[in-house]
Amino acid sequence: MIPDANPAAACGARLRKSREARGWKQDELAAQIGYSGRHISAVETGLKPPTLRFSRSIDSVFGYTGTPESFERAWSELRNGTLLEGFPEYVGYEGRAVELRLYDIGVVPGLLQTPEYTGVLTNCVAQRGSISPEQAAERIAFLAERQAALERARPPMVMVVMDESCIRRWVGGDEVMDAQLERLVEFADRPNTMLQIAPFNIGERRPFTLPVNLLTLADRSVMCYAESQTQGHFDRELTSVVPMLTAYHQLQAVALSQAESVAMINQLRKGTP
Prior knowledge:
InterPro entries: Cro/C1-type_HTH (IPR001387), DUF5753 (IPR043917), Lambda_DNA-bd_dom_sf (IPR010982). With 273 residues, the protein is an alpha/beta fold. It contains 12 helices and 6 strands. It has a 6-stranded mixed beta sheet with strand order 3-2-1-4-5-6, sandwiched between helices. Strand 5 and strand 6 (232-235) form a beta hairpin. It is elongated and about 65 Å long.
């Protein structure tokens, strides 16, 4: 389990786990990358944040260079403040998943967003001063990369349940929102997708109060990423992931069917929010 107290603690936990998996002591790892055992200890306990040079050295020794597990990639994304903790690791697996199960509240899931919809949301965050214009551009580009990664020869099965608020919340005006709703209808028509709306009237039967993403890999292992406004958490422990998967299935059971969901979206396109 990766602690989500702060990025330095998360990196330290990953470093310790990778080192111990190889049966190395701190001094043994330190000797291979040109640092002291004390420095390794400080990074693992979160007392010292990793540098770019350190991250690259670790990647070289562990064979992580250019892989989803890369410490350099996580260092860059967390340093720039563009992603919540745990999300870089999640994205590394997302591009290799055979099944994706997504649930969102308030906004259309990122993988289904049009560039215009994404731009309105991200630029609004920048205007509030939460991120810089440069970080906003990085977020937009990063989402485009994630969407492109799913357009492969054998695309994954993508199941999406959206709270009704996702389509009722008007973002960017009529033109932007109409294009976004059209995108959802087109998404539902693909052979490898399923789109459902969780209507407001399911009330207390909605099992989630926060966005949840579940991944299934080719070996059938399941992973979960969930986030709040300020924190993200990536989980691969079966004891906590399986109940989330069960809750997702229960959500699908009370949500509208795909045909009913598309009909709701099309009806919204004909009228006003």
